[in-house]
Design brief:
- By secondary structure, the chain is α/β, with parallel strands linked by helices.
- It has two domains: 2-172, HUPs (Rossmann fold, 3-Layer(aba) Sandwich), CATH 3.40.50.620; 190-271, 2-Layer Sandwich (Pantoate--beta-alanine Ligase, Chain: A,domain 2), CATH 3.30.1300.10.
- The chain is built from nine helices and nine strands.
- The chain has helices at residues 7-18, 34-43, 73-83, 116-119, 123-138, 150-162, 192-197, 200-213, 219-233, and strands at residues 2-4, 23-28, 48-53, 87-89, 142-146, 168-172, 236-244, 259-267, 270-277.
- It has a six-stranded parallel sheet with strand order 1-4-3-2-5-6, with helices on both faces. A three-stranded antiparallel sheet has the order 7-8-9.
- Helix 5 (123-138) packs across helix 6.
- The relative contact order is 0.13.
- The protein binds adenosine monophosphate.
- Adenosine monophosphate is lined by residues 28-29, 35-36, 38-39, 145-146, 148-149, 172, 174-175, 182-185.
- Residues 28-29, 35-36, 38-39, 145-146, 148-149, 172, 174-175, 182-185 line the site of adenosine monophosphate (AMP).
């Protein structure tokens, strides 16, 4: 495994790797857990594989956790190596990707205006910009994203289509703790009491699914069933929303497999997101 600080050197190595076959790529912000590792193993199934570890400042709001975002480069590199990754981009400084004269950003459409986009202004603009940069550096045949960040995956897919990017965007299942909590780098912030309460998002999802199984299809009723559970553990709910799984727009009736329920809530100071298809 080769680790690069310099984006241009990483790009040269990726281009070289592409000469002999497909390249699978996984962009991350590091502090890798088993959710990331599931993506790394998928990428490692290609002739060559690449990973980026970069806490992207442009996707954090002024009051968000950029400065205290958890980091563990040695641990991440050991995990990447174990998963069979060949090339890693891990810039030490943000300037490596954002020089002082940087000025070009991706402008997004309605997919990014709702849910996370409505609550975290600029988040998806920063995310899409860095993903586009990373795809231009790695030039992979396949790029892997977790469905944990459901809206992010939808936006990246849309961007790849709209910009004719020659890459297949692949979504991978959410990896969960045995009790159902979705793995997240931010779970380390949770105290034992908060960790127990964080399960409310999973319980909300289960409540919505149980209602679907009894024949309930009204989006508002499904949201309410889920919200009752989330309220039991969360300190503040940003949204519990049943949406069309492709457009992410509001729907009245949840058609199985075409509807998704999405959650964002604070447990203590930690903001957690989760989602699941209603099927
Ligand atoms: P992050 O480091 O949080 O930016 O995440 C990097 C990638 O890992 C994104 O595509 C995430 O959707 C994905 N990811 C994060 N948590 C999970 C999880 N629990 N299961 C599957 N993928 C995940």
């Amino acid at each position: 495994m080769r680790v690069f600080d310099d984006p241009r050197a990483f790009q040269a190595a990726c281009l070289n790797a592409r000469r002999t076959g497909d390249l699978g790529f996984v962009p991350t912000m590091g502090f890798l857990h088993q959710g990331h590792e599931s993506l790394l193993r998928l990428a490692a199934g290609h002739a060559s594989s690449a990973l980026s570890i970069f806490v992207n400042p442009t996707q954090f709001g002024p009051n968000e956790d950029l400065a205290r975002y958890p980091r563990d480069l040695p641990g991440d590199l050991a995990k990447a190596e174990r998963c069979g990754i060949d090339l890693v981009l891990a810039p030490k400084e943000a300037e490596a990707l954002y020089p002082s004269d940087f000025q070009t950003y991706v402008e997004l459409g309605p997919l990014a205006a709702t849910l996370e986009g409505a609550l975290r202004p600029g988040h998806f603009r920063g995310m899409a910009t860095v993903v586009l940069k990373l795809l231009a550096l790695a030039q992979p045949t396949h790029a892997y994203f977790g469905r944990k960040d459901f809206q992010q995956l939808a936006i990246v897919r849309r961007m790849a289509r709209d910009f004719d990017l020659p890459v297949e965007i692949v979504g991978a299942p959410i990896v969960r703790e045995p009790d159902g909590l979705a793995l997240s780098s931010r779970n380390v912030y949770l105290s034992p009491d908060e960790r127990a309460r964080a399960l409310c998002l999973w319980r909300g999802q289960q409540a919505a699914l149980a209602a679907v199984r009894t024949g309930e299809r009204r989006a508002k009723a499904l949201e309410l069933a889920a919200r009752v559970e989330v309220e039991k553990g969360a300190d503040r709910i940003d949204y519990v929303a049943v949406r069309d799984a492709e457009s992410l727009q509001e729907i009245e009736t949840a058609t199985p497999r075409q509807a998704v329920i999405l959650f964002a809530a604070f447990v203590g100071k930690t903001r957690l997101i989760d989602n699941g298809l209603l099927e």
